[in-house]
Amino acid sequence: MSASIILGIESSCDDTSAAIISGSKILSNIAANQAIHNEYGGVVPELASRAHQQNIIPVVEKAFSKANIQQNEICAIGFTRGPGLLGSLLVGTSFAKSLAMSLNVPLIEVNHLQAHILAHFIDDANPMPPTFPFLCLTVSGGHTMIVLVKDYFEMEIIGKTIDDAAGEAFDKIGKIFDLDYPAGPIIDKLAKEGNPDAFQFNKPRMENYDYSFSGIKTSVLYFIQKEVRKNPDFIKENLNDLCASVQRSIIEILMNKLEKASLDLNIKDVAIAGGVSANSALRKAMEINQEKLGWNIFIPKFEYTTDNAAMIAIVAKLKYERGEFTDIRTTATAKYDL
Ligand code: KG4
Ligand code: ZN
To answer: Which of 3, 121, 134, 182 would bridge 23 by S-S if both were Cys, CB 3.0 to 4.6 A apart?
Structure first.
């Protein structure tokens, strides 16, 4: 039997992406980022959905041509139904529905958060995929949670943020430092030349496996306001140290709870997923725990960290095998539990 060829479409936030998967192998994974939001310091929903409208056809066409696949060769279409920005989700959802109708192939809805986690099952994501049950720290601009993954579609959130997501903390603190949006990757880069112990910021004291990131943001804000009153060039003169210190604090907060969960549940297969899993200090911390705590670690390739359609395609493939299809009358949903 030849491998199933599936088109995946992602449009939940500000990346329009399309991917073609054959079996578990990604043949193409195309994304168009929306630079329009940089000048606003965050994603503007109206502008995002309009940019998706402009990008979706060229992105899908490119995914087909890069994969060297004709439209009539695909056997299903997977799309992100939620969670995310409704106006953005509607573009991908409507497009997927129309194309599925015109090609007469089944439609498969995908939960964006499950997709971040299940990206670990893409052919070239890991030398060996994780074994169930495993823990997955899912860290993005919209979500921060520790997920107990019992099976492909049996996931339990055992801890989550009560306020800002980790990526949001990077982005908001970056804004205080006058960095462009999204600031996460910029902070990561600047931190490489900085001293992570230069400054100390407040750490939250949270029960169980939950997180909070609004405290560190406020702590940075007050500290900067105080220092800038004394020296207007304080940020400029200390930018690398500030970024390194902020990054160290955020990664320490993330890792402390993940270590606690691994210890309490006695699970040593530990994965990270989502945009913040691109962070070099988080990746390093995982590698240290592989040595120190004997973890089997699963770190996604860069192209599978931030929003991408390859992860949507792998979930669609897993559902296709299970015969789990979606009614064509479906609608996008901003909230969508794991
Ligand atoms: O998963 P993602 O692309 O979109 C959401 O579903 O939210 O994650 C985007 C988030 C942004 O907050 C961005 O700043 C953060 O991931 N991010 C990073 C890095 N690369 C992306 N944060 C820290 N270090 C990075 N290298
Ligand atoms: Zn995401």
So the answer is: 3
Q: Is the CB of 140 under 6 A from ligand 1?
A: yes
Q: What is the pLDDT of residues 81-131, one digit of tens each?
A: 999 999 999 999 999 999 999 999 999 999 999 999 999 999 999 888 999
Q: Is residue 187 within 8 Å of 170, Cβ to Cβ?
A: yes
CA of 55 to the centre of ligand 2 (A): 18
Give residue 207's pLDDT band: very low, low, confident or very high (50, 70, 90). confident
The answer to whether domain 5-118+305-322 and domain 130-299 are alike in fold is yes
Distance CA 237, CA 28 (A): 43
pLDDT of 167-181, one tens digit each? 999 999 999 999 999
| Ligand 1, atom 13: closest residue by C-alpha | 184
Residue 149 identity: V
pTM: 0.95
For ligand 1, whether the C-beta of 141 sits within 6 Å is yes
**What is the distance between the alpha carbons of residues 191 and 233, in angstroms, rounded to a whole number?**
18
**Range 5-118+305-322 has CATH code 1.10.10.350:** no
- The three-class DSSP label of residue 217 is helix
Distance in angstroms (rounded) separating the CA atoms of residues 36 and 13: 13
Q: Which atom of ligand 1 is nearest to the CA of 281?
A: 24
- Interatomic CA distance for residues 217 and 214, integer angstroms: 5
| ipTM of the complex, rounded to two decimals | 0.98
CATH 3.30.420.40 fits 130-299, yes or no: yes
Say how far apart CA 133 and CA 150 lie, in whole Å: 4
